[in-house]
């Protein structure tokens, strides 16, 4: 299994993508003690504080670097955006198609993230490649991830950016915490001794007090990062309350959770899922089954480390991975009936809709309890609409999720817009059309 450290190496931070931090060690010029960063001569997109860092990063960078070079040398890929956001978006999508062709595979989440968030002028949408050799993009001196191509454009954009620069800086502070190699970002190692769940507390502040982790609230950015990982198990716990009563929840010894469409977000937060066991102390075994095309390889179950108390009491966590669609998994011999199927930030209506349809039909046919989340209200409403078209019986539709992440992420295809993981939640189970019949 790929380690968390290896996964973090592949994903570049916003500062690394902006070219203001080393693509290997994350250090800025000031932190590295150099006057400027060295730009990769081949792709001209990533920067390094030393030759040693460039060499160390090459194993993660090599294939993407070669593909970027090919696109950079394709004149038709850099047609003018004519100063419009829509053309800028169309061009990025077209360029990603060319990158995929050059790689002879689909782009990974990391590669899409890097390409979509590359620096551009906030006014005319020109990238460094669009500028004359004597020109360069000018970064905001405070956040260093927002750019304009000239002083005149900064004058036009400055007042808007000044209102948002603090959010960009919060986002960057959160990234620094996320990329600390030994930073514990998972659940507080406390049991719900009184078995007071359900329900959960009313909000994050009360949750941390309940879990005897009030100290987290004293550090804003750290708290935001913790909510980004704990949003996963807390959203699951909130959904379980809707599908099962108290006695049922506290009688489950072996809990099975299926994660449909799983990707790196869930993988990097694996430790956080132990919170389900801490809130439901009767659980002896928690099975996390991650099904998605972005899983690395088929794995029927490997043990995950537990906290000292869970280990002492012989409680177990097991994770399985299946690099396939959920409906294919459901028709395989490896399928086991879950207590809940979750889909985090699925984008049903806009991403891989043709693949999601047979999965949803399979879930409805099996009458599986389902909890799906969305980044925004617009996405959630569209997701509910398409779920209804496919026959789902909606129990909770496009509701704001109080256990959403509080860590801001920049929307790569809109200027100065932010989103949050698991902002809205939709619960459904069974086929509404069958009930009518």
Automatic annotation (TrEMBL):
GO terms for molecular function: zinc ion binding. It holds the Pfam family zf-MYND. Residues 22-65 form the MYND-type domain. Gene3D superfamilies: 6.10.140.2220. The keyword Metal-binding applies. InterPro entries: Mss51-like_C, Znf_MYND. Keywords: Metal-binding, Zinc, Zinc-finger. PANTHER family: GH20023P. This is MSS51 homolog, mitochondrial.
């Amino acid at each position: 299994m790929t380690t968390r450290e290896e996964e973090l190496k592949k994903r570049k931070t916003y500062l690394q993508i902006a070219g203001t931090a080393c693509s290997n060690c994350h250090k800025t010029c000031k932190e590295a003690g150099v006057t400027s960063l060295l730009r990769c001569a081949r792709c001209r997109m990533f920067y390094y504080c030393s030759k040693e860092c460039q060499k160390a990063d090459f194993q993660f960078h090599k294939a993407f670097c070669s593909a970027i070079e090919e696109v950079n040398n394709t004149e038709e890929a850099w047609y003018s955006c004519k100063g419009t956001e829509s053309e800028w978006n169309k061009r990025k999508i077209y360029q990603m198609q060319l990158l995929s062709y050059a790689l002879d595979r689909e782009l990974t989440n990391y590669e899409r993230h890097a390409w979509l968030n590359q620096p551009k002028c906030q006014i005319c949408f020109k990238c460094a490649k669009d500028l004359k050799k004597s020109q360069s993009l000018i970064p905001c001196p405070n956040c260093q991830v927002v750019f304009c191509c000239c002083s005149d454009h900064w004058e036009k954009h400055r007042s808007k950016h000044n209102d948002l620069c603090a959010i960009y800086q919060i986002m960057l502070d959160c990234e620094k915490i996320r990329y600390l190699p030994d930073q514990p970002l998972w659940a507080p190692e406390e049991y719900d001794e009184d078995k007071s769940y359900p329900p959960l507390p009313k909000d994050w502040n009360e949750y941390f007090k309940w879990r005897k982790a009030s100290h987290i609230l004293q550090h804003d950015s750290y708290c935001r990062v913790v909510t980004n990982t704990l949003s996963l198990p807390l959203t699951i716990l909130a959904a379980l309350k809707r599908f099962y009563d108290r006695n049922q929840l506290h009688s489950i010894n072996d809990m099975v959770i299926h994660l449909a469409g799983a990707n790196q977000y869930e993988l990097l937060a694996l430790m956080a899922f132990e919170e389900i066991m801490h809130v439901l102390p009767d659980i002896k075994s928690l099975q996390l089954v991650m099904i998605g095309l972005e899983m690395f390889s088929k794995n029927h179950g490997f043990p995950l480390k537990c906290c000292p108390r869970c280990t002492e009491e012989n409680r177990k966590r097991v994770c399985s991975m299946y690099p396939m669609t959920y409906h294919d998994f459901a028709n395989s011999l490896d399928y086991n009936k879950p207590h809940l199927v979750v889909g985090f930030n699925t984008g049903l209506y806009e991403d891989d809709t043709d693949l999601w349809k047979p999965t949803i039909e399979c879930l409805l046919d099996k009458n599986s309890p389902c909890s799906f989340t969305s980044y925004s209200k617009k996405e959630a409403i569209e997701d509910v609409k398409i779920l209804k078209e496919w026959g789902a019986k909606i129990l909770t539709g496009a509701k704001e999720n109080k256990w959403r992440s509080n860590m801001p992420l920049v929307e790569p295809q809109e200027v100065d817009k932010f989103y949050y993981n698991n902002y809205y939640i939709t619960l459904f189970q069974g086929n509404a059309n069958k009930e009518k019949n």
